[in-house]
Amino acid sequence: MRGLVRKLAILALLGAAVGPALAADVIVAEQPPYCADHQSIALLVDNDVVSLKQEVARLMDEAIAVSNDQRWIYSSRPVFVWANEAKYSCGKAYGYLKASYRDEQNLNNCGCAYSRMQSYMH
């Protein structure tokens, strides 16, 4: 409980320091460290929300299929881990796209996790 109170106090101080920007926006980095040296697919290049939504849905469907495949579940390679991460991130990005909002963080995470999943499969 004490740790939660401390975190909330830090967020309140950050919120006061940055003005109208949300404190959570300040804490979020551009790309997670595990994606820094990895080639991710560029989902943000596409300006058309409809085609972007289709592409994210395709990536999410592939990640779901891989995460349900027994070959990858019991593999010694981390394909299953990245499939689940892609499934989660692409699902969040897809949810935002259904409301016509392009959430760059989740789109970047989706592209990164999908690319990592693919790289460990081959």
Tell me about this structure.
With 122 residues, the chain is mainly alpha-helical. Helix content is 68%, strand content 0%. It has six helices and no strands. It has helices at residues 2-18, 23-27, 49-67, 70-73, 79-98, 104-121. The longest helix has 20 residues, at 79-98. The model is unreliable at 16-29 (pLDDT under 50).
- CA-CA gap between termini: 45 Å
Count the DSSP helices.
6
Give, in order, the helices and strands.
HHHHHH
Biggest sheet details:
none
Shape: globular
* Radius of gyration from CA coordinates: 17 Å
Helix content: 55-70%
Number of strand elements: 0
Average predicted local confidence, pLDDT? 78
Low-confidence stretches: 16-29
Describe the SSE topology.
Blueprint (H helix, E strand, L loop, with lengths): L1 H17 L4 H5 L21 H19 L2 H4 L5 H20 L5 H18 L1
Helix pairs in contact: 3-5, 3-6, 5-6
Short description:
With 122 residues, the protein is an all-alpha fold. The protein is built from six helices and no strands.
